[in-house]
Design brief:
The complex is a heterodimer of chains A (about 120) and B (about 1000). Chain A is mainly beta. Chain A is built from one helix and six strands. Chain A has one helix at about 35-45; strands at about 5, 10-15, 20-25, 55-60, 65-75, 80-85. Chain B is α+β, with helices and mostly antiparallel strands. The chains are: A mainly beta (about 120), B alpha+beta (about 1000). Chain A: Pfam families: SoxD (PF04267).
């Protein structure tokens, strides 16, 4: 059972308080009607299943009801970080040790069209 | 009965306290401080069980959790039955009753053993599957009898009278195991000020120090243990949990500890101060850091007939002699590959009994213990091993020979030694089970001939658990682990001065697992690897010959390491044998994964107090007590208790559900009924962008909905599939009240928050659950307006207060919102009042309603009435694969809304646009008496060969008293274009029902009744 740090409550809480909501950084296309069927199908159904670092969307369902993201290692189940909506992860597949902090420079988005 | 194997002195038992117990119905005596196993050995009980597959007689092998044979059934009473108890872990108490789990008619004379003996050669791995395969249809019959002759005990057939608790704990450092390493680790961490939990599975803490020959500070080691425990017990930051097993190591240092509080006292928990004590506790520990000080299990050697009673682990012999004052035989032969095991011979000799010989596989053993044995005059046969035990129900001799390990053969003449006990040791295996639970694969170390745990962040191992065996080093290793854990927790390192332990020079151990025999493994006597699952070296050989090369496949084929045993004694030997046969090294073959639980945990401890009325929370509406008093039968909807129907007494008889529902339906259609609808989800939505938000999450339009108006809405997921529905009312320009299905309330709120927080945070809108704040009662039927007029100040004129309007006012003198929405198809008023006024309003309605025939109705009638109108229930007519179009609800879809609402894009995908999708229709059974089964599959052609193409299923089906006929809602492929056609429903009993596809609206298709 995970022990999850809610970035809004600022506390480690038991997994029972949270619901997992799937892969993080899946942004809804800005203009769905201009998407091809294939593009829309990708958005709806296709998800990554990496062995290693994975970004996940969770909600503190019986706590503050806030959605936030978790960077988790799918082999060790270690949670490397949790971060608020709109923020970018520090730990990524390219930077498993954490990317260098570049003050004032926004890191490149993880996926095309990421807003949240 | 005398305790013929009990020594006159020694051991940690209390000879002044005699305890009486029975085993297989026979009465024996033991002492306080005994385990069931030590007491059985003291009484000379050789056979404690019959083996799982071959029904061979089995005796006690070990002294701890790794015992594979002495798995017994406890319990005098039916309710007190406990299966799967290791006799080595069960403290003796007065009146204990235990039985063998296998053996028929009894363990001494077992008929199944004939099968084992005669069929022995013919029972390779997979025997049952291979033999009883054909015909497949009879497997269930075979299985029943096979199960009867196997198995490890049985569950009680009566309710458990005991109480179990769950405790949630946090600590900085959890130390598992209170042997030398665990004790010093706990001391080091505790002195730093860390919050420490120290657990140990045994009756007493101290581990190997309770039976070691070594002195600590020139005193018996147990004195040092007493001092250490005294200090720990006196510290506020330390919790000591004896008789507690760390059974599972889960994610993020979540460890489950099973503390047995009364199992050493009695079968069921005794009373204390007139109250029943808690039998066991499950501690759910979230640890900052964990120190694994779980020690090591000795590996037995694998030789012929090594399962005959009288074959023991060398270390277990020492433990029985030194800790329990029991010597389990008269004449001992020891077979070993290392120095440690010599302690067994020395302890045996000191107890005054004879050591016949030590067979040491090494050519020139020369350690200190070896020399001590020589000095005592013990015969040591070098380069040799016990290759086979003689005897049937007890060892009667040992066949010893020189062995050539490189050639895997017997290299000299065989000598048969007269003995009744064979102790063996192939070295130690660190107890890596808990580390394995974390998913980390262990690492093989050639220098210690064992796997050591690979440790995830925050875990360390100390002492035997990581292959450190010399007492002085183990003590120091524990200090280091405890200190490191405390430092990592941000605490200053504390000093622990270690007791003096005389250094001992040990010779190098030799790698020996399976001992060669004169005959090939497949023809020689059975050499057991896993005693609990009856897996032999020959079985592993057969498995590798049949092509099972992966150790995980060998495990599954042979059952090695399965079940309650989890490979404690046998796994490493089994891997070593597989490795030799496959011509690989042990690390190349690898290990199997050990899984929780380490030892069996009783279900009561897992369940804790979450049973009976505390199994799940129950939610009641404000009118619940009224429903109870009026005889309602209840239905569970999620956690809610909803009235299902209200049976009346008619001519001294209680109505059936069918009768009650028919009466309730007629009341609504002909007079007036009332439903407690409080459980419907209610979400209060406010903010300048509330209207825009609704337009995005609902399929239909919300831009024009004026205050005072109500609209029905469908909600889809972005795949275009309906997932909830309900009405939403405009309370003000920026204020709406959304209703959801009863079961969908929490999910819909989370759904709204998801979209708001992750996609559209720029929208200024807020969601609040108000389900419990407002009670809802639906007054419906032709007489509803007359009844309402008596108790409300709201203008009920049909022009002033139209269908799909809502009004604010008072009802029964309290502030209320009244909604003209209808789920029955009749004139209906849904009254919402603050929940704590609700019972008053409900009762006032009844005070005025009698003359109109006001009738309470439940969910069953609600379902019949709504289905007659073709109103769907999300989750009943829909299952996540149904679009608004499939439901024929295009009237609720706003394709021309400016924002591409959730689900819109998906409705034009080729699959969702198909015309032969399953569509909602009504079904009218040809025989009006038939009520179709919900879930029944529909076919177009009942004469089609099986399997018939299934074209849909029944989603709702009832008897309608208004139509005096069965009727159903269903989804049928292309159904909307098939009105009037016939479909068929073949049933399990061979009947085939016939039904006509009709409109799903069975009553008042124009909606005139609700619009009056």
């Amino acid at each position: 059972m995970f022990y999850i740090h809610c970035p809004y409550c600022g506390e480690l809480r038991e997994e029972e308080e949270f619901h997992p909501k799937g892969q993080a950084h899946i942004a809804r296309p800005e203009d769905p009607e201009s998407c091809s069927d294939e593009e829309w199908g990708d958005y709806l159904f296709f998800r990554d299943n990496p062995r290693g670092i994975h970004h996940e969307l969770w909600v503190h369902a019986v706590g503050c009801r806030k959605f936030f993201n978790i960077t988790r290692h799918t082999v060790t189940y270690e949670i490397l970080e949790t971060y608020k909506m709109g923020e970018q992860p520090r730990f990524t597949a390219e930077h498993p040790e954490g990317r260098p902090s570049q003050d004032g420079v926004e890191p490149a988005p993880l996926r095309e069209g990421v807003r949240a | 009965m005398s305790q013929l194997n009990r020594l006159a002195r020694g051991g940690r038992i209390d000879r002044s306290r005699r305890l009486s117990f029975t085993f297989n119905g026979k009465r024996y005596q033991g002492h306080a401080g005994d385990t069931l196993a030590s007491a059985l050995l003291a009484n000379g009980v050789d056979i404690v069980n019959r083996s799982f597959k071959y029904s061979r007689p089995r005796g006690i092998v070990a002294a701890g959790a790794e015992e594979p044979n002495a798995v017994v059934q406890l319990g005098k009473t039916e309710a007190g039955q406990v299966p799967n108890v290791r006799a080595t872990q069960q403290a003796l108490f007065d009146g204990l009753e235990a039985r063998s789990t296998n053996g028929w008619p009894n363990v001494q004379r077992d008929l199944m053993s004939l099968v084992g003996k005669l069929g022995g050669q013919f029972m390779p791995p997979g025997f049952y599957y291979k033999t009883f395969m054909a015909p497949a249809s009879l497997w269930m019959t075979y299985e029943k009898y096979i199960r009867k002759s196997a198995g490890l005990g049985r569950s009680p057939m009566e309710n458990d009278p005991d109480i179990y608790d769950h405790l949630h704990q946090h600590c900085d450092v959890l130390v598992i195991g209170a042997g030398p390493a665990g004790l010093t680790a706990a001391l080091a961490a505790a002195r730093s000020g860390a919050r420490v939990i120290l657990v140990d599975e045994q009756e007493e803490m101290g581990g190997s120090l309770l039976d070691t020959r070594e002195l600590l500070d020139d005193k018996p080691a147990d004195q040092w243990v007493t001092e250490a425990l005294k200090e720990l017990a006196g510290l506020d930051n330390v919790t000591l949990l004896p008789r507690t097993t760390a059974n599972g190591y889960h994610d993020h240092h979540f460890v489950t500890l099973h503390e047995r509080r009364t199992e050493h006292l009695a079968e069921t928990a005794p009373l204390k101060d007139g109250r029943r004590q808690v039998r066991s506790r499950m501690h759910r520990v979230r640890a900052g850091r964990v120190v694994l000080a779980t020690g090591a299990h000795e590996r037995p050697l694998v030789y012929g007939n090594n399962d005959v009673p009288g074959n023991l682990l060398a270390g277990a012999v020492s433990t029985y002699v030194r800790r329990y004052g029991v010597v389990p035989g008269k004449r001992l032969v020891l077979s070993t590959s290392n120095d440690h095991a010599y302690r067994a011979a020395l302890d045996w000799l000191e107890s005054g009994r004879e050591v016949v010989a030590i067979a040491d596989v090494r050519a020139n053993p020369d350690g200190e213990l070896v020399e001590q044995a020589r000095a005592q005059g013990i015969r040591i046969i070098e380069g040799a091993a016990v290759i086979e035990a003689k005897g049937d129900s007890r060892v009667s001799g040992a066949r010893v020979a020189k062995v050539d390990l490189d050639g895997f053969r017997v290299a000299g003449a065989v000598e048969t030694l007269d003995c009744d006990t064979i102790a063996s040791s192939g070295g130690y295996s660190p107890v890596i089970h808990l580390a394995s639970h974390t998913g980390a694969r262990p690492t093989w170390r050639d220098d210690i001939l064992g796997f050591v745990p690979t440790l995830v962040k925050g875990v360390s191992a100390a002492g035997g658990a990581q292959g450190v065996y010399a007492t002085a080093e183990v003590l120091a290793d524990g200090v280091e682990a405890g200190r490191q854990a405390a430092t990592e927790a941000g605490l200053p390192a504390a000093s622990v001065s270690l007791p003096r332990v005389a250094a001992r020079r040990d010779g190098t151990a030799c790698a020996l697992y399976q001992v060669p025999h004169e005959k090939p493994t497949l023809r020689g006597p059975k050499q057991f690897v896993d005693l609990q699952n009856d897996v032999t070296a020959a079985g592993i050989e057969v498995a590798t010959r049949e092509g099972f090369e992966s150790i995980e496949h060998v495990k599954r084929y042979t059952a090695m390491g399965f079940g309650t045993d989890q490979g404690k004694l046998g796994n490493i030997n089994g891997m070593a044998i597989a490795a030799r046969l496959l011509g690989r090294s042990i690390p190349e073959v690898g290990t199997t994964v050990f899984r929780p639980n380490y030892t069996p945990v009783t279900f009561g401890a897992i369940v804790g107090r979450h049973c009976r009325e505390l199994f799940d929370p129950e939610r009641y509406t404000a009118m619940h007590q009224w429903h109870v008093e009026h005889g309602a039968e209840f239905e569970e909807v999620g956690q809610w208790k909803r009235p299902w129907y209200f049976p009346r007494q008619v001519n001294g008889k209680t109505e059936t559900m069918h009768e009650a529902v028919a009466r309730e339906c007629r009341a609504v259609r002909e007079a007036v009924g009332i439903l407690d609808a409080s459980t419907l989800g209610k979400i209060d939505i406010q903010g300048p962008d509330a209207r825009e938000f609704l337009g995005r999450v609902y399929t239909n339009k919300w831009a024009q909905l004026a205050p005072g108006r109500v609209r029905y809405g469908l909600m889809c997921k972005d795949d275009g599939m309906v997932f909830d529905d309900g009405t939403t009312s405009c309370l003000g320009a920026n204020h709406f009240l959304m209703t959801t299905t009863t079961g969908g309330a929490a999910g819909v709120l989370e759904w709204l928050e998801l979209w708001h927080q992750t996609e559209w945070p720029e929208l200024d809108v807020y969601f609040t659950s108000v389900t419990d704040h407002w009670a809802t009662m639906t007054v419906t039927g032709p007489e509803a307006r007359k009844l309402m007029a008596e108790i409300t100040d709201i203008d009920l004129d049909k022009e002033a207060f139209k269908f799909m309007d809502w009004r604010e006012g008072t009802v029964a003198g309290v502030p209320a919102r009244v909604f003209r929405i209808s789920f029955t198809g009749e004139l209906a008023y849904e009254i919402n009042v603050q929940a704590n006024y609700a019972l008053h309003v409900w009762e006032t309605l009844f005070a005025h309603g009698d003359k109109y025939g006001l009738t309470p109705y439940g969910t069953e009638t609600m379902h019949v009435l709504r289905a007659e109108k073709g109103f769907i229930i999300a989750g009943q007519e829909t299952d996540g694969s149904v679009t608004p179009e499939d439901l024929g609800m295009h009237w609720a879809v706003g394709y021309d809304k400016p924002f591409s609402w959730i689900g819109q894009r998906a409705l034009t995908r080729p699959d969702t646009a198909r015309t032969d999708r399953k569509q909602l229709v009504g079904l009218k059974p040809r025989d009006a008496k038939v009520v179709l089964e919900e879930g029944a599959q529909i076919v177009f052609d009942p004469n089609h060969a099986i399997p018939m193409p299934m074209v849909g299923h029944v989603t709702s089906s009832y008897y309608s008293p208004t139509l005096d006929s069965g009727f159903a809602l269903a989804v049928v492929k292309g159904g909307q274009q098939k009105m009037g056609e016939t479909v068929y429903l073949p049933m399990a009993d061979g009947q085939v029902h016939e039904a006509e596809i009709v409109s799903p609206i069975f009553l008042d298709p124009k909606g005139e009744r609700q619009n009056v």
